[in-house]
């Protein structure tokens, strides 16, 4: 009888220990989940610099396209500038999808607005204005996500 | 820019972040909220709302502000738990506003509490005559604790020296037609026993039960779902 109650006591202690182990494990898992979630949010919100990097080669390389545009405008090659500007427009639309979660809407709209102004500068072949607009574009691009 | 998508993303971030931070802050925020903590709560809520809808702001700085406020709240909680003097300085102390049936106007005034507010709170505690109050304390949360005069307190079994059974906490056995096996095993009860009890009461399908609990004395309480209840009445 006494042996039986001792065995029962042992079983209950074992069960209690198992339960505590389970609770401990769950707490660690919860903590891990919290850390992973918060880190994921932080990475997405701060991932603008990563998003700005080209992911489809030259197609969405906004920085390279802006440099090419600068050269084309400098040389007065307006046909090439026209082509590069439409490619820049397309490339930025691609990049925008990746960086929109970490940027302010205002900055993105400002960039789009300057792109439209640049188009009109190229249309009228105004080198001075095109240069100025391109400089503004470069500055907005650099400040995106900062 | 897909504004809807960005708002949805930000809303998810704000929601999950608030959920996590509220959990980290703990239950005291709800149950024992002081005025200070109330302000904290409003600020955090406001920051979460800005994070969701102010698309002209970058989300990261707002999120950081949310995190910093949370850290400050947790820090303040830890400090106030550790050092009582700081706790008193930050949260204040309960103020006696009624003593022996008399309003202490000076204390009431210094707490910025109006007599009408006091009367309303007393009425909510079923006290309609200030003369019945031995002590009333204005707590840090803004609520009032009332101790009625001994002769105005309701009669209890202890006053009558009547022994009462220990009630304890009831344990849930069935919720929405599903047996809580965890609680059953904790109490050392078998499912067959529960089904027998239900059968004795004319319930042959556990899914008909909305809620069932057992108290410390072993008394079973069963609440049937509306449809099953109607069926039984017919």
Any overview of this molecule?
The complex is a heterodimer of chains A (about 150) and B (about 230). Chain A has about 150 residues and is mainly α. Helices cover about 85% and strands about 0% of the residues of chain A. Chain A has helices at about 1-45, 50, 60-75, 80-100, 105-125, 125-145. Chain B is α+β, with helices and mostly antiparallel strands. Chain B contains ten helices and eight strands. In chain B, the strands form two sheets. Chain B has a four-stranded antiparallel beta sheet. In chain B, a hairpin with a 5-residue loop joins strand 3 and strand 4 (about 145-150). In chain B, helix 1 packs parallel to helix 4 (about 60-80). The mean pLDDT of chain B is about 85. The interface between A and B is medium-sized, with 20 and 18 residues.
Mean pLDDT of chain B: 87
Helix content of chain B: 40-55%
The end-to-end distance of chain B, rounded to whole angstroms, is 61 Å
Tell me roughly what share of residues is in helical segments of chain A: over 70%
Mean pLDDT of chain A: 90
The best one-word shape of chain A is rod-shaped
Number of strand segments of chain B: 8
Tell me the structural class of chain B: alpha+beta
Note the gap between the termini of chain A.
Answer: 75 Å
Q: Largest contact between protein chains?
A: A-B, 20 and 18 residues
- Relative strand content of chain B: 15-25%
**Cα gyration radius of chain B (Å):** 26 Å
Question: What class would the helix/strand composition of chain A place it in?
Answer: mainly alpha
Q: What is the number of strand segments of chain A?
A: 0
Strand arrangement across the biggest beta sheet of chain B: 2-1-3-4
pLDDT under 50 segments of chain B (min length 5)? none
